[in-house]
Amino acid sequence: MEKQYLFVDGEVITANSKNQVAEAVAVKGNKIIAVGSTDEILKLKDKNSELVHLNGKTLLPGFIDSHLHITVYGTNTLSISCKSESIQSIEDLLDELKVRAEYTPKGEWIRAWGYLEDKMMEKRYPTKEELDSVTKDHPILICRACGHISIVNSYALRLGKIDAHTPDPEGGKIGRNHNGEPTGLLIENAHMKMFSIAKFSDKELTEAHKIASEHFAAKGITSIHDATGYGLNNLRVLQADSQNGVIKQRVYAMVGALNNAQAVVKHMTNSGIFTGLGGDKFRLGPVKLFLDGSSSGPTVWTREPYTSDPENYGIHYFSQEEVDELLIPAHEKGWQITAHAQGDAAIEMLLHTIEKANRLHPRLNARHRIEHAGIAKPDLIQRMKELGVVPTPNPAFVYEYGDGYIKNYGERVNHMYPLADYLEAGIPAAIASDCPVTDFSPIRGIHAALTRRSQSGKAVGENQRISLLEAIRMYTYNGAYASFEENVKGSIEPGKLADLVLLDRSLLNSEIDELLDTQVEWTMIDGKIVYTSAKAEIEA
Which fold has domain 4-62+495-532? Predict the structure, then answer.
């Protein structure tokens, strides 16, 4: 006999088409069977029912993070975190690296992540020589928080076959001193290539997935759109760990790689399979490219020069012809297509490709995507609407990196991750964290969508603020829409999968800044409790 839960006396934010708020929900097996008032749901009670009083707390559809990197986040937990309070300076970081070197076998990688030069006492990157002073027996890679820039030691440069005669890769840059010798600083594609060399074992990947999944469940995330990591082998381990229950969340897997994504896209386009293959637990998503750089780097590709540097327009990886040659055949063969496109020039390039693909090979409901769509001005939003494109904006970036956005992009911050403009245009934007680039907590993303304030309290495009219910729908239903799954999840409605989250308070009766104190009491996926806090009134 399937277990039946009756959740009553709550604040049930349904995220349905009318953004209705109910009081109670009935779940049987892995499906929602009824939504309504407490009195209505209590009529379903029988001997197999477990009655749960919510006491006015908020029950939500499970959060869907529409763009994060589960493998990269998980493997970061196995590495040194530069975001730790114990690391305030380069000297602090070097001390941590020395400790790690003492128990790491010779020849194995020592890695750190989350580096932000502006947060360090010295306001700079460590030098290759400083990293060399830590150890001569290990390669070292320090990855910037954006995931597009790194600094490495001499050992790593040798492994990457990078010296004074090595040319900059297309779409990347090798930092050099006045003699042309590499400094250890690697930008964009130069970093991506090194990142692929510093790879992890399958065992480490599975350990990383387990840790990440547990962390995500504790924040109410029930589905993820994984935005790729270490190529096709990563995809294989991701699928296996999903099927074996290591990863609790439902996975919509983008197909690409942080390095040489074009080779992966070509291979998968010719494989005979396409977007949608899989089931409710694991499903293939779009093929994905990188078109430009990091919003905080800053290395995004812009139509106008940076406010902070009139000679700088950022970095782009491909020509228009190359993007067309890679993505139009994928569209023709049934793939959803997408690309990391942060700057307005990169967004425009991807829209050109999508428009041409639709013209040459008409396809209903392709729902092509744009990952991030950082600087999305009104003309680009209009084209997104006309082409049926789904963007995945990152409002939490505004909080963590907003001060830099003001400096580097000026008035363009009024068009960065423009949630209000998407709503007005009727575009189903799906909010995402891009974890580990920033905090994966959906509550953090929602708060940033409501406030548009940086860490220092500065306004960063206040014209793009939206309401609480609108933000929740972007983090739930719109995420399901972005993966063609809005008929089975993303809202609390009869017949949909029982992916639910209970919070420790009423969101609708909380002040905006109180939202950040919100905790998840329990997370349910497929009708089963996968996370419970000490406060929870329901047993796992």
Answer: Urease, subunit C; domain 1 (2.30.40)
